[in-house]
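Input structure tokens:
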């Protein structure tokens, strides 16, 4: 290893010493797994508090307008989970399941029990594929036995085939909704796939039906991840809800402002109808933009607006001005909406 690489590695180790939490970054999961395989003790990740996130969001929002904040997308951060034992889904063809509609004879039931016993012997000798074969024969002879499906599911878990295990566990639970082993094995299989919340739910049901130490051990790994996911979801549900509430409040304030302006305009209308200068009022074109091409015209219109006690809005423009052409339709729309306001379009040339 050249000196430059050694220096970079030394610098990285110093960073880990000063901030051990960086080892929990998703991009460094391979390194954390390697350290744990050597027996290293990894400090637990320090979760970011909602208060810190709130301060960060507040600092960011301080530089944005209200419209920017309302339209800003909420980008969800990744949840730091312990995924060391998670495996890739198995893509094998579905296993034989048996026809539960057939009537099981006593002879077939007895034969299936013999096959189950052979399967248990194979499991004890770590001959898992042989155990699968025995249990599959047993299932075909007695497809209405919940325990046979649950037992085969447990072997699939040992073979790191969680999808096949879930299929068998589902079959066991369809036959017997109170199958503790069915819930237990399905919970373990879901944990292998990283389905932490579903796994925790199944394992808790199994624990209530028939608790054993293995369920407790799996729950110790599953529950922290499930809790982190739940807290993460609740946090962003709260943020989305708060943003929607802000949008509603913003729209309500806008409506109040518009209503207030309309009321003020209506209050001005009686005095306008009694304008003391009919000639001035007639010079003003209600609902239209009045073009101004000289200082004299501008002075005349401003005096007419003053005598009629009307608000005058001036829009300075030129034929060579590109932005002016873009704003012109909006100015015309406003003139049509607020007909008691005088809208003047002044040509600066």
């Amino acid at each position: 290893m050249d000196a430059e690489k050694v220096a970079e590695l030394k610098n990285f180790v110093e960073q880990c010493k000063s901030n051990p939490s960086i080892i929990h970054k998703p991009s460094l999961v391979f390194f954390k797994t390697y350290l744990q395989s050597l027996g290293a003790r990894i400090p637990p990740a320090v979760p970011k508090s909602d208060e810190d996130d709130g301060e960060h969001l507040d600092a960011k929002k301080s530089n944005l307008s209200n419209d920017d904040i309302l339209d800003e997308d909420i980008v969800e951060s990744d949840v730091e989970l312990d995924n060391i034992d998670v495996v890739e889904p198995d893509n094998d063809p579905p296993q034989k399941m048996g026809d539960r509609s057939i009537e099981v004879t006593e002879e077939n039931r007895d034969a299936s029990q013999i096959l189950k016993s052979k399967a248990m012997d194979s499991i004890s000798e770590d001959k898992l594929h042989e155990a699968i074969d025995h249990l599959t024969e047993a299932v075909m002879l007695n497809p209405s036995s919940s325990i046979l499906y649950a037992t085969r599911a447990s072997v699939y878990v040992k073979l790191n085939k969680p999808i096949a295990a879930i299929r068998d566990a589902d079959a066991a639970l369809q036959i017997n909704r109170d199958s503790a082993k069915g819930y237990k094995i399905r919970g373990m299989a879901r944990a292998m796939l990283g389905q932490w919340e579903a796994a925790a739910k199944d394992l808790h049901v199994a624990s209530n039906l028939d608790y054993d130490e293995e369920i407790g051990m799996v729950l110790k790994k599953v529950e922290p991840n499930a809790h982190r996911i739940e807290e993460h979801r609740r946090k962003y549900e709260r943020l989305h809800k708060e943003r929607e509430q802000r949008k509603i409040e913003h729209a309500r304030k806008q409506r109040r402002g518009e209503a207030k302006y309309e009321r003020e305009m209506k209050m001005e209308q009686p005095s306008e109808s009694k304008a003391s200068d009919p000639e001035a009022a007639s010079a003003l074109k209600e609902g239209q933009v009045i073009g101004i091409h000289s200082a004299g015209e501008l002075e005349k219109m401003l005096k007419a607006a003053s005598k009629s006690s009307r608000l005058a809005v001036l829009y300075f423009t030129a034929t060579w001005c590109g932005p002016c052409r873009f704003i012109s339709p909006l100015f015309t729309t406003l003139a049509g909406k607020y007909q008691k306001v005088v809208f003047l379009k002044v040509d600066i040339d």
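The chain has 14 helices and three strands. The mean pLDDT is 83.
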